[in-house]
Amino acid sequence: MGARSNGAMPARQPQGNAVTDGAVEQQQYLTFMLGGEMLAVGILHIKEIIEYDGITQVPMMPACIRGVINLRGAVVPVMDLAARFGKPSAAVTKRTCIVIVELGDGGKMAQGGERGERHDMGIVVDTVNAVLEIAAADIEPAPAFGARIRTNFIEGMGKVNGKFVILLDVEQVLSDIDLGGLAQGGDGDDGGSGLAELADGMARTD
C-alpha cells in the first residue's frame, strides 16, 4: 500500500526565495483550495504532492488526523486540514491531494526522534493550484481579528491579483498535535518501535 505521486510537484526547490533586479525579494508559495478558500504554504516546506489514496486509520488519534500513509517505507501521519481549522471535512474527489510538508523540531509532533530532527506530515487539500511568487512588499501581517482561522496559524496575507491569499504558518498549524500513539511501541517503550511495526505491517499488506 504505497502512496503514488501526482508528479505535480518535485522535491523542495532551492529557489524558494529569490531576489530579482537586485532589490525586490520574491518568495515562492504553493497555493491550494480548501473549502472554497485559497491558502498557501511556503515552498521550502513542501516535499511533494501525492494522490489521496491508501490512508490507514489508526485508533486513538486526534480527530484532525485521518490516518497514516506508507511513503516509500516511512509512516507519515495525514492531517485533515479543514478539521484542524474547525470546519467540516470536504468530500474526497479526484482532485483531492495530500501535500507532504517537512517540519523542524519546532513542530511538537515527535515520532520517537531526537530533538533537531525533521519529519514529514501530510495535509489533505481540496485541490492544488500553482506555485506563485509573492513580493515581500505584497505580504501584510496576519489580521488581529476577523480571520476565519486562528490568527496564530497565519504567517501573513499575500496580495495576488488584487486579492488576499492566506499564507499559513505551517509549523504552527501542525504543532501541538499529540501523536504519542505513533511514537510509542506496544509495550510502552520509548523510541520509534511503534512506527517501525506499523510500517512493517503496512508494507506486508501493500
Q: What is the helical fraction, as a range of percent?
A: 10-25%
- CATH superfamily membership, which one? CheA-289, Domain 4
Q: Given the C-alpha coordinates, what overall shape results? A: globular
The domain tally reads 1
Radius of gyration: 17 Å
- SSE succession: EEEEEEHEEEEEEHHH
**Which runs of at least 5 residues are low in confidence (pLDDT < 50)?**
7-15, 18-23, 106-115, 183-193
Structure class: mainly beta
Helix run count: 4
CATH architecture verdict? Beta Barrel
Mean pLDDT: 77
Distance between the termini: 4 Å
Tell me the strand percentage band.
35-45%
Major sheet, described briefly? Answer: 7 strands, mixed
Can you identify the CATH class?
Mainly Beta
List how many beta strands DSSP finds. 12
| CATH fold topology | OB fold (Dihydrolipoamide Acetyltransferase, E2P)
Describe the structure.
By secondary structure, the protein is mostly beta strands. The protein has a single domain, classed as Beta Barrel (OB fold (Dihydrolipoamide Acetyltransferase, E2P)), CATH 2.40.50.180. The chain has 4 helices and 12 strands; from the N terminus they run ββββββαββββββααα. The strands form 2 sheets. Strands 1, 2, 3, 9, 10, 11 and 12 form a 7-stranded mixed β-sheet that branches. It has a 5-stranded mixed β-sheet with strand order 4-7-8-6-5. Strand 1 and strand 2 form a beta hairpin. The N and C termini lie close together (4 Å). About 17% of the residues have low confidence.
